[in-house]
Amino acid sequence: MVNSVCKPDLDCPANIDRFVALFYSRMLKDDQLAPIFLEVADIDLDKHLPLISSYWQKLLLGDTSYQRHTMNIHRVLHSKQALTEVNFSRWLALFNTTLDSHFAGPKSERARAVATQIATNMQRALPAEPT
């Protein structure tokens, strides 16, 4: 077991980029979530991963380059396939597992709290039945 003191924090763009790459690598192997990202959302990883890194840099480091409205993006996805409580719980579990495996520190704990808040807020904001 690696001592948490040896794990980097999400305190710089390079570490956030690494976290996003590790998280997506894990998530895109997941039987439940991979089809949502790869088939329904049809994401282009070369474009998507830098956007997600930029999003987390905004949330954790105060970077202002990310200017997209994430809720609208997820509403469009939800209209194609309902995003359920089970999906959000799985996303959060994979997020936390990736953090626990590779990162530690105040910014990592902030990411964990923000991810929980994001999952909760999206669940509440998306209609039970997609339109």
Protein topology:
Elements: H1 13-27, H2 34-40, H3 45-61, H4 70-80, H5 85-102, H6 106-125
List keywords for this structure.
131 residues, mainly alpha, 67% helix
Condensed summary:
This protein is mainly α.
Helix content: 55-70%
The overall pLDDT average reads 89
Shape: globular
Radius of gyration: 15 Å
Tell me the β content. Answer: under 5%
The chain-level structural class is mainly alpha
What is the makeup of the main sheet?
A: none
Order of helices and strands: HHHHHH
Annotation field: number of helices: 6
Number of strands: 0
Low-pLDDT segments, ≥5 res: none
Question: What is the distance, rounded to the nearest whole angstrom, between the alpha carbons of the first and last residues?
Answer: 47 Å
Description:
With 131 residues, the protein is mainly alpha-helical. Helices cover 67% and strands 0% of the residues. It is globular, with a radius of gyration of 15 Å. The N and C termini lie far apart (47 Å). The model has no long low-confidence stretch (mean pLDDT 89).
